[in-house]
Amino acid sequence: MQKITHKNQLPPIILGSSSPFRKALLEKLQLPFAQNAPQVDETPLENESPLDMVQRLSRLKAKTIAEQFPDHITIASDQCATFNNQAIGKPHTHENAVKQLQDFSGQSITFYTGLVVFDPRTQSYHQRHDETIVHFRPLNETTIQNYLLAETPYQCAGSFKSEGLGITLFSSIQSRDPNALIGLPLIELTTIFQEMGITLPLAE
User: Fold this and answer.
1) 116 phi and psi, to 5 degrees?
2) How crowded is residue 31: how many other Cβ atoms within 10 Å of its Cβ?
3) What residues are labeled active site?
4) Alpha-carbon distances, residue 105 vs 23, 134, 181 (angstroms)
5) Percent of the chain with pLDDT over 70
6) CA–CA separation, 72 vs 122, rounded Å?
7) Cα–Cα dist 5/75, whole Å
8) Which of 26, 32, 62, 88 has the greatest count of CB atoms below 10 A from its CB?
9) Would you say 75 and 13 are in contact if contact means Cβ atoms under 8 Å apart?
């Protein structure tokens, strides 16, 4: 397969997500792309582990978008946060966010992030996942309230934004790729692109 070194050689790219966070991450690679959110049922299967779930949903999202846009490189991702091996979701309310951060004080949570890329030239799917562990400082009530009122992370799993003030809540992060925690593992994505004959960064 011909190597791609310039942007004008690329097939069109579509990000299978409506997330502004994933959009901002993918923009870091300076690639042209469009967005389209896949309509899939994200209900976990019975006895499905968080890692198995994000891998399955990432592939399902990629497949759904690839069927709609078969000539596009499709990038899809899914993420699940866990605490004590149980999936945790978005808090949605201030009260729920307070409870989450109280539970996490001095503890650790794990994020599993799945990634699937569809290559229309070979009709093949490339799959990876990333695991990130976030260790929290001991958090008192003042810290929790000040943080939540400043950043209102009520649509974020775990009740924080690591790319913002949420970083003040952590004692450390164990990760191969800090982008994965925000929602898209760019190191793995770059590796997949290399396997597809696309070596980033690309020339204009």
Assistant:
1) -135, 135
2) 19
3) 78
4) 30, 11, 19
5) 100
6) 11
7) 19
8) 62
9) yes
Query: Side chain identity at 89, as an amino acid letter?
Result: G
d(CA 32, CA 202) in angstroms, rounded, equals 11
Give Cα separations from 5 to 9, 66, 196, 200 (angstroms): 7, 23, 12, 8
Segment 162-171, tens digit of pLDDT: 889 999 999 9
Two tokens at 112? 């599993």
Tokens 């011909």 locate to: 2
State the amino acid at position 38 in one-letter form: P
What are the backbone dihedrals phi and psi of residue 106, each rounded to the nearest 5 degrees, phi first? 70, 10
73-85 mean pLDDT:
95
pTM of the model: 0.90
- The length of the chain, given as a count of residues: 204
Q: Would you list the domain boundaries of the chain?
A: 4-203
Write the burial class of residue 55 (CB in 10 Å: 0-12 exposed, 13-18 middle, 19+ buried): buried
CA 67-74-24 angle, to 5 degrees, is 135
CATH of domain 4-203: 3.90.950.10
Q: Which two tokens stand for residue 45?
A: 């299967």
> Among residues 200, 53, 63, which one has the least CA distance to residue 112?
53
The letter for the amino acid at 75 is I
In this structure, are residues 34 and 43 in contact, taking their beta carbons and an 8 Å threshold?
A: no
